[in-house]
Amino acid sequence: MRAGDYQRVAEVGLVVRPLTETDLDAVIDIERQSYSHPWAKGVFLDCFHPNYRLWALEGSAGLVGYSIVSYQFDEAHLLNICISPASHRCGLGRRLLRHVVASAAHDGMVAVILEVRASNEQAARLYLSEGFQEIGRRPGYYPDGSGREDARVMSLSLGQS
Ligand SMILES: CC(C)(COP(=O)(O)OP(=O)(O)OC[C@H]1O[C@@H](n2cnc3c(N)ncnc32)[C@H](O)[C@@H]1OP(=O)(O)O)[C@@H](O)C(=O)NCCC(=O)NCCS
After folding, report:
1. Quick check: is 115 catalytic?
2. For a tag on the chain, would you pick the N or C end, based on fewer CB atoms within 10 A?
């Protein structure tokens, strides 16, 4: 992909808006393409709650990504961020993550925290490049075949610099 293409995909015809229950069929489709252990529809339904922020990234052809954030006291916990595999590496994940961070700051959160599978190098690179720092590990946090996989815990402070 050329630099010009990157900019075009990232900036034209895309909108971030609140996710609704009518988006869930498209969400589940992307979720199942993206994770070895996808969330069930009921898990998404449980997130339609006042202390959650659910975001849809929509292009001209429909939903291309989503994120689920839980606000716990003054911390935003990024529970899920996902871009359709057909649209990977076009800058969309970074764009949606920046929206999550800006919204959390606007809502008075002091930090964004998240867990990422130890093997998920592409997501970890995105987070680290956006200023997140690894603050610990949760051993065996994720199911992984017949075993378990560690989570890397990352945090971004939203304090004034
Ligand atoms: C992680 C994810 C959201 C990134 O979305 P994306 O739109 O493909 O990412 P972007 O194009 O915005 O890339 C941003 C940065 O992420 C990193 N990255 C993304 N894909 C990568 C890959 N395949 N290899 C290495 N680095 C990668 C790079 O640092 C990249 O910056 P660069 O292009 O300037 O090098 C996407 O891969 C995804 O949906 N994965 C499946 C779900 C998932 O794992 N979610 C995270 C759960 S913690």
Report:
1. yes
2. C
Q: Give the CATH architecture of domain 3-157.
A: 3-Layer(aba) Sandwich (3.40)
pLDDT digit string (tens) for 3-57?
444 444 445 689 999 999 999 999 999 999 999 999 999 999 999 999 999 999 9
Domain locations in the chain as residue ranges: 3-157
Instruction: Give the DSSP letter string of the chain.
Output: --HHHHHHHHHSS-EEEE--GGGHHHHHHHHHHH-SSPPPHHHHHTT-STTEEEEEEEETTEEEEEEEEEEETTEEEEEEEEE-GGGTTSSHHHHHHHHHHHHHHHTT-SEEEEEEETT-HHHHHHHHHTT-EEEEEEEEEEEETTEEEEEEEEEEE-S--
Q: Which ligand 1 atom sits closest to the C-alpha of 83?
A: 39
Q: What is the pTM of this model?
A: 0.93
Q: How confident is the model at residue 145 (pLDDT cuts 50, 70, 90)?
A: confident
Residue nearest to atom 43 of ligand 1 (CA): 82
